[in-house]
Fold:
Amino acid sequence: MGMKQRVKDGQLLRAVWLYQLKKTASGALINYVGERKRVAPASWQRNGQDLHIMERCKLGVDLGKAHIRIRLVALIKSGLGGITWAIPKCTYWIVSSQADEAWAYARQWWAARGVPVEDGNGSTAYPDPILIDNYEVKLEALRAELLALFGGNP
Structure:
């Protein structure tokens, strides 16, 4: 068995950023019964981009589950790269202008493909959610675009 490589803070932060971008693609949608979807309002950005601490093994870093948590909590406390708690001790995210741009891009991307947009203005008249044809294919396409456009530094 080989020894694990040391994971530096910058590498961990980058892993968080890339996973946050991937989540943004699906997080820009609100899910309804029957797999119907609608574009989330702009004000839902935190909900659409935050990462649950229990998902930490999905970051793809070569650390044990407990060690990732320890390192994430320390990184969040440091505030390095804009990482912060979204919901204390539960969800976290990177807050940056790049995150804002990725969020807006994902919402516009889905809207351009005919997914109805919830404007979040407090109105009770919401557009009906729809089934998205080839959802998984479109989701992967958006993820690839987000990574290509925003996958540099957060």
